[in-house]
Structures are given as structure tokens and as C-alpha cells.
Amino acid sequence: MGAVTAIPKAARAVVTGVVLAAGACAAPAAGDPAVPWAAVGLLAAVHALCELPSRGTAAGRFPPVGAGSFFPVLLAAAFLLPPSAAVLVAVPGSLAGGAEEPGPRLRRAWRAARLGLATGAAAAVYGRLRPGPERSLGAADFPWVLAPALAAVLVFCLVAAVLDAVVRAAAERVPPGARRPLLPSPAPHCVHGLAGLTMAVLWKSPYGPPAALMVLPPVYLSCRTFAQYHRERAAHQATIRALVQAVDLKDRYTRGHGERVGRASALIAGELGLGEERLETIRFAGILHDVGKLGVPTRVLRKDGPLTPAERRTVELHPEYGHEIVRGIGFLGEAREAILHHHERLDGTGYPYGLAGEAIPEAARVVAVADAFDAMTSTRSYRRARPVPEALEELGRCAGTQFDPRMVRALTRAVQREGWQTAVTSDEAVPPAARPGPRGVPAG
Amino acid sequence: MTARARDGRGGPLPAAVVPLLRAAALCTAVLALLWIARHGPAEPGTALAFGLLAAAGELARRPAASGAPYPLHEPLGREPAPLGAAAALAYALLAGSAGESAAHGALQAVAVVLAAVLVGAVPQAARGEPGAPDHAVRRVLTTAFAGVCCAALPTAGEFVNTVGRGPAPALPVLLVAGLAVLCDAVLAAALLRARTGGPYGPVLREELRALGGTGAAVGAAAAVLALAAGAAGLWALPVFCLPLLLTQLSFRRCAAARTTYRQTIASLARATEIGGHTPAGHARRVAELSLAVGRELRLPGHELAVLEYAALMHDIGQLSLVDPVPGGATVLLPRAEQRRIALLGGAVVRRTGVPAGVAAVVEQQADPYREQCPAARIVRAANAYEDLSGGSGGSAGGALAALEQLRLGTGRDFAPEVVESLARVLGESAGAGGRR
Questions:
Q1: What is the pTM of this model?
Q2: How sure is the predictor about A253, in pLDDT bands with cuts at 50, 70 and 90?
Q3: Where does A289-359 have alpha helices with state H?
């Protein structure tokens, strides 16, 4: 139980209070002859079955759907049962699902109470607003039943979100809504609500519960695919970083350079008011701008002294190598151009094509400024880092000949407002194996 | 000799089956249209609602997996439009369970589904994607199959009523939905086999495995749509279809995310080629050869995915070399150096977010085969063959000499069964090239 002490007392008090409240809401079910206990048991069992896969699975494999995020069964219960019985349906599944450390038992109890209260509240609202006196659900009730059903779903969403915000505030000691938006988007809940309504319709129909349960496989598949989508996206971001990592394998004194240039590029793009999507693309362009160094011989990259003209020409090929490497990555779009042209100068004396002025793609002009800024403000083997104001001044001097003045002004404004962290952020110690072999030239 | 025999396994039977399937679909479609033209549609409102739903599903279909560099195991199954499939099947089930003349209901269902598929095929044809006729064949035959099964439903319902304790009207519909999904999987495997070649068995296995995920979901959704439309009228359609439509859209987004992910992995794999560490196309060729061997050795689908990623990235560690190895042939380096490169490569691969197994395969590249996992054995043998035979520009003599050298290494470095499988795969492709 040592790990549980990591949960603050205030959060424990909140959990205890909510569990007691849920118990109080469920209590009337005990002596109520109107509660259909068979339906309660079946729904609770099905919900538990849907939650089971979220328990700790084999190493390295992800749960198909996160614990406590599959609501159609609970919402069907809200449409089918009186509030006190609906509270009970959420309990076994919440206790069966997976939970993180610290305090998995406390977390499960909390989830049971929170989802139970939300389900009970939804059932109460639906019971109050439903059109007919009987809990009938047939062709005659459509479309009128949709309004109370929607109201019940929104109440479910609201109760769950408010309880969540309260316990987070108690656990993290910050006011509600400070770290994340207070209310999540109700869209997923509405979709689960429609599935729950279909379940309820079939449950009440002559076809009965077996037909109602058929609603679950497609909705479960949908949730699983959605979770998988988020994993794929995360894996993709990791792969982009791995490309940068591969550059660091060759050129060790630029470690963290890509990440920082990405950050500075995003700052400039944000200051220029470019859209969300372009900002992300330009961030990727900044992160990947030197990926072409993978094509330059390591011996040249690690060379200590001045480069010979032939070696310089080899190094100057890196924008073209980079463009060639990322050519196949469709979503990068504009970023590919930026990687190709980030060494062009405004007066046309840059490389590889010697483009001038507006002929240089906008994203490339952004990355060029960010690249130079980070090169000046970080320590290299051959010189110390320069202070940020001095670097900005230097950029201002070169604006118009080398850099686009608009980008330099944007960077200056953004850095003066938000500051600039020169420390390496996403970097760890070099693995011992990455030290240069016997033939390697020490970097300094 | 072996190549011939193996080729014969999937030989003449499916080749004759596919035109037969197409002809059957065409006959069914013509019959359905004639019947509609003569009798007019029964309950046109319901027909229109289901037809619109099926057409919407077809229009929102997942685009064909273009842009993916290599054919890969599809964890979501090969059904591109689950909502379209579910709506088509639901209408067939509804037509059957509505009573009166079930056979006529089946013909009307075929006509409505055909119209929906044709509407859905318009943008697909405009994009110039292949496979539209096969898709229509699949839908028409599955719908007809479900409709004919439903013709037997009243009899089955009576049977259940007389034998069972009480009414269980949902069970026959569920049963027909299950059978129809099964039939659809078999059809899909036959049509795909005809398009891509290759043995029928693994294709069918893959389709049947997908039945556990997408297939079950499509069948269940179709049953729900049919039953709910019976219980609550046509309002049930929009209520339940919104969740289904979202399922399909999340399929699409997931497929798009996977495509860009694969493109990025392929770019990472090409980095060593740009750097002059390995010959152009080396990673891709090793990946293709490894996949062929993996299929020949009947590795399951998820292991094939690991195998492909590992083969693509097996040379990443070479980026740490100060000077490129001549020709990128790590097979000629001292063992300690090979190990160092493999470990470094594994460290980079661990960062990419691919399954953990991939990094392990890359790290094991320099180990003797008895300490390797099966995927690592395959990648090591395929890579060595590529290095020794001189890639795509190698001569037939070079290929033979390379195989001979691998056979000599089976004492320690290369797994004998993998080398033999590699020889069979190479013989097969050489045989196919010779016949062409």
C-alpha cells in the first residue's frame, strides 16, 4: 500500500464522499418491487465483459479500449431502469476494469461511484422527461423520445465531467479547468447514447435482450479503432523523432538542435498568424531540416578543422539529401520544400538553387531564421553559446541580405514575449555504444 | 519441380471460379432488374431509405490502400465500406423477415443494393481505382445469398416455435446474418486471389480471421438494423447509423494514419541508402524477400508486420560508422563490429514506436541463429543473400554462389530451414520469371 500514500488526503476525502453519495442513490433499489433484477444483472454483466479487456494485458500490448470509456451499456440502463437500479449497473464493470498505479483500488472505487452517479442522474432525467407514462419504446414513440434521450446523455456527460474536475482539483491542487478544459466534447457521448437507445428499443421489442446485445460489437469496434488511431499517430510522431535521432548518431554536437529549431519555427509561424495546420507542418520542417546530414559522410561531419572546398561541397548537398529522404512522406507537404531550401539566402547567394526573395518558399524562410538563431544560442564544440539578445541583434543585422526581415521581427517579438529556453529538452545521455569508434575524431 | 507443385496448389480451380461468380452475379442482377421493372418496388419508402443508407456507406468507403509501399497485413480486414455492407445485408434480412413472398423480397433487395453500389462506384471510378466490378459482384451475391436464406426463415421460425419453449424470433435473423458474413468472406478471398495471384489458403485464412473483428461487427449491425426497423420503424435507421458511420470514418482516419506512418518508416529505411552506406533499394528488397520467406514459412500476420519493419530498418545502425562499409555488406565485417552496429540500430528503432519486437529483431542481427527469434533469422538470411548476390544487378551465377555461401554458414550463422525456404522462394520467382 506504499504507493497509495502518493494520493493526497483531499482526493481521498472527495472519493469517500462520492462513494457514499452513490450508495445513498442506490439504496432505494433494495426494497423496490419494481426493479427488474434480471435486467440489472444482465446489463451489469455485459458492462463488466466490455471492461475486462482493459485490465493489464500481456507485456507491450495495449488494451483495445481504455477502462471506463465505453458507455452504451450504461446509457441503455439509464433508458431501461429506474435511477436507483441504474446506479448499480455501473459498479461491477468499473471494479473489473484496469486501473493505474498509484492506488488502483481507490481508482476503481472512484470510477464505480462516478459512473454510477452519472448513470443514475441520466436515468432520473430520462424518467422525468419521457413522453409516455409507461417505459414503452416503439414506433409510436419516435421521434419524440429523442429529446429526453439527448437530455439524459448530456446530463450523463455533465455529471461525469464535473466529478472528474473536482477530484482532479483535489488531487493536483489546482483550480478546476486550469490544466484542461472543464467540459469534454459531448459528441462521443451522444454517439454512445444513440447506441444505448437502439439497445433499449430492441430490449423492449418482441426480439428481446439477445437482439439488443448485437448493438455492442460494432460500437466496440468503433471505440477500438479510435483508440488505435491515436496510438498510430503517437507512433508516427515517435518515428519522426527517430529520424532526428539517426542524425544525432552521426553528428553528435548538434544534439537537440532539430527539436529546438522546430520549436523556434513554430514560434515564428504562430507569431505570423499562420493556421494550425501550417504551424504543425512548419514545426515538422524545423525538426527535420537537417535530416539530409544522414547523407553526408560522418568523417566530414565530425571533422575538427576547416573543411576543404570538396568537403564543403559535400556538406552543402545536405538539403537535397534531406528532400530525397522525406520525398515519400505525403503529409509533410510544404515541409519538404522548406527542407530543400532552408539554406537559401534572401539576396540569392545561398544554396542549393540560389533562389532570391519571394522565390524562396515561406516555410523555408521561417526555418532559415530559426536554424541560425539556435546555432548561435547553443554551445558547439568550437565556441560558446551567445546570449539570446545578442543573437537576435545579429539576426537583425543580417535581415534583408540573408534573412527575411518579417521572420526576424516575428521571432524577436515572440522570444521577447515568451522567452527562450536554450536547454536541451527532449534529450538523454548518449548510449555508451554511440561513442565514436577507434577511428572517430573526438568532437572536442 | 517443387515450384511447379506449389503453384498447382492454387491453380485451375479458382481461375475458373471467378468468371463463374461474375456470371452468376450478372444473371442475378439482370433477373432482379427485370422483376422490378415488371412488378414495381414493394414498399418504396423502405427501399429508398435502405438504398440511401447503403449508398452513403459506399460513398464514405475507405480508399484503396494506395501509397503503402508494400502489401501488408490489414488488421482491420479488407472490407472497405462496413456501413455499406451492413445496410445491404440489413435490407436483405428485412425483405426476408417481412413475410409474404420472400423470394421476391430477395430480388428487390438485390436491385436496391445494386443501385447503391453503382452510386458508390462513381467517385471510385472517377479516381481510376480498380476493383469496382469485383466489389459489386461481392455485394450482389452476398445479398442474394442472404435473401434466399431468409426465404427459409418462416419455416425455421415455425420450427423454433414448435420445438422451443417460447418465441425466439431474433435467432433466425442472427443466424442468417452470420451465414451471409461467412459467405462474403469466402467470396472476398476468391476474388482477391484472382486479382493478386498466390495461394488461396492464406488469403481465405486472413479473411476468416477478420471475421472476428469487422465481419462480426458488420453481421451484428445488419441484424440490429433489420430488427430495429421492424420494432421502431424507419427512425431506427438514422439513430443506429450515426454510430456506424463514425465507425467507418474512424476506420478511414486510422488507415490514413497508418499510411503516413509506413511512409515515414520507409524514409527512415532509405536514410542509409542516401548516405551511401547501402546500395539503392537494398532495404526494400530485403523487406520483400523477408516477407516472401515469412509467408512461405507461414508466419502469422502480426509477425509478418514485425518482420517487415525490422527488415526495412535492419541497417540503421550503419549510420554510426565513420566510413561506409564497401557496398554496405555488413556480412563481411568482423563479428564484434556487426554486433555493435546491430545494437546501435536497435537503439534507434526503439525510438520509432514500432512494436517492441522489431527492435529486438534488429538487435539480434549479428547473433548466431540458435539465439535468434524466427523473424531475426529470416532478416539475417535475406540480408546476407542480398549483400552476397549483389542486389538486383546480380547475375544468376551470383545468386547461386550466394545461396551456396549461406548453406555453408548454416552451422552457426544461418538457420537451415530459413535458407531452404529462401532457396524455394528464389526458385519460385525465377520460375515465374522464366514462364513469363
A1: 0.72
A2: low
A3: 298-301, 309-315, 318-326, 334-341
